[in-house]
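Predict the 3D structure for this chain.
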Amino acid sequence: MSNKTLVLGIGNPLMQDDGICVHAVQQLKAMYPNFPQVDFLDGGTLSFSLIVVIEDATNLIVIDSAQFCDEPGTVRTFHGVDMDRLLGQQKNSSVHDVTLIDLMSIALLSDQLPARRALIGIQPGCIDWSTEPTSAIKNAIPEVCDIAMELIDKWCT
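Done. Predicted structure below.
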C-alpha cells in the first residue's frame, strides 16, 4: 500500500489574505519539486472534483486561512478530529460554494477519509480585492511551509 500525501492549498488568490495557500503551495513546490509520494496542489476555491484526490491520499495536509480570533498571521495546526471540529464550526462562514467540510464528509461517507489529516490555518488580516497578501501573511509563509514539511517527514518516514 502506498503512503501518498496530499498538500492541498485552498483559497482565492484574488482576495488578499485568503490566497495564502497559493503562495505557500507555490513555495513548497519550488523547494521540493520531486518529492516522492507527495503532491502539492493549489485547490483554489474548492470544487467537488477535489474529492478524487482527497480520497486517493493516505495523508492530507490542508493549508487555508482560518478565523480563530487571533492576530493576523498567527499559524495554528489542527490534527484529525480537531481539524474536523474547526471545519464544522466555520462551515457557515466560508466564502466558498463547496466547503472543505463538505469534501471531508463525502470522503467519510465513502470510507475514504485520510486517517492522518491536518489543517494548517493562518489567521487572515484583510480579505479584500487584491492579489498581494498583507505583510503579516507573507511573514507566516515560511512557518506554514516548515509545519507542512514536519508533518510530511513524520508521516512518510
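The domain at 5-156 is CATH 3.40.50.1450 (Rossmann fold).
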